[in-house]
Specification:
The complex is a heterodimer of chains A (484) and B (484). Chain A has 18 helices and 18 strands. Chain A is α/β, with parallel strands linked by helices and 484 residues long. In chain A, strands 10-13-14-9-8-15-16 form a seven-stranded mixed beta sheet, sandwiched between helices. In chain A, β15, α15 and β16 form a beta-alpha-beta unit. In chain A, α3 packs across α4 and α17 packs antiparallel against α18. The longest helix of chain A has 26 residues. The termini of chain A are far apart. Helix content of chain B is 42%, strand content 17%. Chain B is built from 16 helices and 18 strands. In chain B, the strands form four sheets. A seven-stranded mixed beta sheet of chain B has the order 10-13-14-9-8-15-16, sandwiched between helices. Chain B has a six-stranded mixed beta sheet with strand order 5-4-3-6-7-17, sandwiched between helices. In chain B, α2 packs antiparallel against α4, α3 packs across α4 and α3 runs antiparallel to α6. Chain B is globular. The chains are: A alpha/beta (484), B alpha/beta (484). At the A-B interface, α4, β2, α8, α10 and α11 of A face α4, β2, α8, α9 and α13 of B. β18 of chain A pairs parallel with β16 of chain B.
Chain lengths: 484, 484
């Protein structure tokens, strides 16, 4: 640990020195670095897919769709848009201040820390990294020890492509994180659980370090069967794809549970079953298209969620567990009790509770009994319901008639609220996330108003009062002596 | 007179529960409610200015002009702006969608965070209490305001007026000190907005971390003023004096804290300052009614200590008189105090102005950079290149060239700190945004589904995904048409 402490201190020293040198301020440098990340991913597609397969049993298509493709796009957008993003924004000033000028420039925070997660270890490391670099910071990335192959890839390959005095990678677990958090950073970006989010923010508070916390929650999916019955096939496919098709339910925006009217639940279940089979075949464990559970600890956690007898009784599909193979079968539950553990913590796995309601409008009440999630999904064509969902629930985002895909929409901020997080990123929001918006006002030494200065008197008071109200005409009258 | 009720944990809990109920009932969401509350705040400013001025005179000895202009007028403008712009601010913002999420439409909806806490400061007790409350109400939140106990007359008046005029089911004032603040901080808030010292800022953020509550911290620092010899000296000096002693007698977060100028120019600066100080405050500044007094004996003793330190007391070149009974310290200028003296190590927040001389102005960048980032940094010069360099390389909350503090009045510029001087920003629309959650909303169609999204995965699907990511137009058409 002593060695690690020294490594961290030395890294910080070097990154701060690099930042102070001004090298990272150049847009050319930033684009070159981001371009290098692009090349790194393109050059090493097979290696990366292999690492993800080793760590999570992720299929290469899924790996590309959810990680490599995302990073390539993020890098392309950043390079193409950086000039635009970095332009100062001019502000209009009131006439009274003429000829003063105002603008806001985005400046890098300095030396930032990115703490990434294990479920999308490549994209959740490189996306924030690209944002930090685009904004002109020096960055230290700590990848997750729970995805060791991906972490090792990043630790070994990033130094080969990027400016090592400005961008560094450290591998390790909670003990390394603890050492890192003792130091002062200019910004911390964390992806992970709310529990650890609190620890990160408390540590950041000691140094007044601003944080972005991308956390999680139980993302509900409302299925308003009445109004989407014509497209029910698409709906079922999207839900199934959103649950099991992306890291097997281990994503912060995974479909956590479904809400549907009681009479339609059997239809939904009857359609989900063959859909799962069409995705993963008769034996999902052997399909090669279903990601594994992260580790035995998580398998046991999921097993525990299922062990509640009332939850056991609600299993209508699946339920088998193979701890050695890190496998939990795609499982569907029908109406597990709302007070069971599985309905009160983020599942983060391939178990899908279906909660029935008498009237779909009741879903809103149920959603509001839980902490604000990262995403709410709703399949409906009822405009009224859409409006109610938007105004009566709160979440990081709301997606109508699809799941997960809001992640791809660069023009939308990606982040949580309440328990699901603080701050946001993606697209320009990533650039903003790692920038301090500095206000700059430039006054003129030429025009000086006596009224600004003591000693005070009634004239000056009246003058200033009028000036503030921008009552320019009365101001002129005052100055001409025509107003008392 | 009835004994003051103790406000403890139980009271805080009930308070938050009450306000949360009001918020959940939708009391604060509507446009009408927000407008009504804002109009009531305007009535407070219009009908109670004399009482406000009197309270500020009691608490701080603040001259009428300062109270009227820097507290009431600024507030009036802030409220009027909110009333004028609220519909615009509340409207959803359209966002661009890309080919990967086609067909879809996206928007960003501003929603209130919920129940928020505003903790204000003693130096501008009305401005710093009501301005954030304007933001909170505009954004549709329920709000608790805790004014500073160090300005008791203002605190009592705020409590009285806000109870009299505003909707107490959603807007409350809690008066008190450490006990009350601690009780409040134990509760779960949806946002905390704090104005005050960096030391307490850490305490606030640590408390907020327990509940993952986002914070805005408006703190302080040593705001430097760089004076170039290529400037209009008279105007420069007058603006510095008005910005320092004319704004609560140096007790402001953006007060010019110390001056940096060349050895050659310093004598001219000092002479000019002495001359203008006498013009503003007369030969006996201790008797001038145009300056606030020191707020209390604790701060008086703190400032005394700064002046009395060995190696500092002999550097006084103007002023230095103290009157503890009347809590007055004369405008005092010091020349070349040691860099490691107390007066150069903490935010002065009083009527003392050290001038540090350098061999050349270049050195000022290093001096500033070697210290924590301040809330504001000032430069007086005609030199365009110097202005450019200063604006881009000095990191501070905000930069003002050729003036002092005026940027506070500009609602088109975000006002906030960075590093030790704080996080987050407000004023104008930035206040509305500070108290809002920007919810991302994606509307997707149930048509236009491509098999490429779903398992079982194949090389073919991988190819198509890559095409989508690369935005190769021909390949995309193939994908959308379900070909290939």
């Amino acid at each position: 640990m002593e060695a690690m402490k020294e490594t961290v201190e030395e890294s910080l020293r070097e990154m701060r020195e690099t930042f102070a040198s001004g090298r990272t301020r150049s847009l050319k440098w930033r684009k070159a670095q981001i371009g290098a990340i692009y090349e790194m991913v393109k050059d090493n597609e097979d290696k990366i897919c292999n690492a993800l397969f080793q760590d999570l049993g992720k299929h290469s298509t899924e790996a590309f769709r959810d990680e490599l493709g995302v990073v390539l796009r993020t890098a392309t957008v950043a390079i193409n848009c950086l000039d635009k993003w970095a332009v100062p924004k001019h502000s209009k000033l009131p006439l009274l201040f003429y000829p003063a000028k105002g603008k806001v420039i985005s400046e890098p925070y300095g030396t930032v820390l990115v703490l990434s997660s294990w479920n999308f270890p490549i994209s959740l490391s490189l996306d924030p990294l690209i944002g930090a670099i685009a904004a002109g910071n020096t960055v230290l990335l700590k990848s997750s020890e729970l995805s060791p192959n991906a972490s090792a890839f990043l630790a070994k390959t990033i130094p080969a492509y990027l400016d090592t005095k400005a961008i560094k990678v450290i591998e390790g677990g909670p003990d390394v994180a603890t050492i890192l958090l003792q130091h002062q950073w200019d910004k911390i970006f964390f992806t992970g659980s709310p529990k650890i989010g609190r620890i990160i923010m408390a540590a950041a508070a000691q140094h007044l370090t601003p944080v972005t916390l991308e956390l999680g929650g139980k993302c509900p999916t409302i299925v308003d069967h009445l109004t989407i019955s014509k497209n029910i096939k698409s709906v079922v496919k999207r839900i199934a794809g959103g649950k099991w098709g992306s890291c097997n339910g281990q994503a912060c925006i995974s479909v956590d549970y479904v809400l549907i009217e009681k009479s339609f639940a059997p239809t939904l279940i009857d359609m989900l079953k063959p859909t799962i089979k069409s995705f993963f075949g008769e034996i999902p464990k052997e399909s090669g298209c279903l990601s594994r559970i992260a580790n035995k600890q998580h398998v046991r956690r999921l097993s525990r969620l299922l062990s509640d007898p009332r939850v056991q009784a609600s299993i209508v599909y699946g339920g088998s567990i193979d701890e050695d193979k890190l496998y939990v079968e795609p499982t569907i539950l029908l109406d597990p009790p709302l007070d069971s553990e599985i309905m009160n913590e983020e599942i983060f796995g391939p178990i899908l509770p279906i909660i029935t309601v008498r009237d779909i409008q009741e879903s809103i009440g149920i959603i509001n009994t839980k902490p604000k999630p990262l995403a709410i999904y709703a399949f409906t064509n009822d405009e009224n319901l859409k409006t109610r969902i938007l105004s009566e629930t709160s979440s990081g985002s709301v997606t109508f008639n699809d799941v997960m895909i809001q992640y791809m929409c660069d023009a939308l901020p990606f982040g949580g609220v309440g328990e699901s997080g603080i701050g946001r990123y993606h697209g320009k929001y990533s650039f903003d996330c790692f920038s301090h918006e500095k206000a700059i006002m430039e006054g003129s030494l030429g025009m000086d108003l006596e009224a600004r200065y003591p000693p005070w008197n009634n004239f000056k008071l009246t003058f200033i009062r009028l000036a503030f109200r921008e009552a320019y005409f009365k101001l002129i009258l005052l100055m001409l002596g025509l107003k008392r | 007179m009835a004994a003051k009720k103790m406000f403890g944990a139980a009271n805080a809990s009930i308070l938050v529960t009450d306000l949360r109920r009001s918020f959940d009932d939708g009391v604060t969401r509507g446009y009408e409610w927000r407008v009504t509350q804002l109009k009531k705040l305007l009535i407070i400013c219009d009908n109670h200015e004399p009482e406000i001025v009197a309270a500020l005179r009691d608490d701080l000895g603040k001259p009428e002009l300062e109270s009227s202009v820097y507290e009431v007028s600024l507030l009036r403008n802030s409220i009027k702006l909110a009333l004028k712009q609220l519909k615009n601010w509340m409207a959803p913002e359209k966002a661009k969608t890309s080919l990967t999420t086609f067909p879809a439409s996206a928007e960003i909806v501003s929603e209130p965070l919920g129940v928020v806490l505003v903790i204000s400061a003693w130096n501008y007790p009305f401005l710093l209490s009501i301005d954030p409350v304007i933001g909170a109400i505009s954004a549709g939140n329920a709000v608790v305001l805790k004014p500073s106990e160090l300005a008791p007359a203002s605190s009592a008046l705020l409590a009285k007026l806000m109870e009299q005029y505003l909707d107490s089911s959603a807007v409350r004032v809690v008066e008190g000190a450490v006990t009350e603040t601690t009780a409040l901080l134990e509760q779960k808030w949806d946002k905390i907005f704090y104005t005050g010292s960096s030391k307490i800022g850490r305490v606030i953020m640590a408390a907020a971390a327990k509940h993952l509550t986002p914070v805005v911290l408006e703190l302080g620092g040593k705001s430097p003023v760089v004076v170039d010899s290529d400037t209009d000296l008279k105007v420069t000096v007058r603006r510095i004096i008005a910005g320092k002693w004319g704004c609560n007698n140096g007790q402001a977060c953006v007060s010019p804290d110390y001056i940096l100028t060349t050895k050659e120019y310093a004598p001219k600066v000092i002479d000019a300052m002495k001359k203008e100080l006498e013009t503003f405050y007369g030969k006996n500044p201790m008797e001038s009614k145009d300056m606030s007094r020191i707020v209390n004996s604790t701060h008086f003793d703190r400032l005394s200590k700064l002046l009395d330190e060995k190696e500092v007391s002999d550097k006084i070149v103007y002023g230095g008189e103290k009157d503890r009974e009347n809590l007055k310290i004369a405008p005092t200028i010091l020349l070349d105090v040691p860099l490691d003296s107390l007066i150069m190590s903490e935010e002065i927040f009083g009527p003392l102005l050290p001038i540090l001389t350098l061999n050349n102005l270049e050195e000022s960048f290093d001096v500033i950079r070697s210290r924590p980032k301040p809330l504001a940094a000032y430069l007086f010069t005609h030199n365009k290149k110097l202005k450019e360099r200063f604006a881009t390389t000095v990191s501070a909350g905000g930069i003002v060239v050729n003036d002092i503090a005026v940027h506070l009045a500009l609602h088109t510029l975000p006002f906030g700190g960075v590093g030790e001087s704080g996080m987050g920003a407000y004023h104008g629309k930035f206040s509305f945004d500070a108290f809002s959650h920007k919810k991302a909303v994606l509307y997707r169609s149930l048509f236009g589904d491509s098999a490429v999204r779903y398992p079982p995965y194949s090389r073919g699907k991988l190819r198509l995904l890559k095409a989508l990511v690369d935005s190769n137009i021909f390949d995309i058409f193939k994908v959308l048409l379900g070909l290939s």
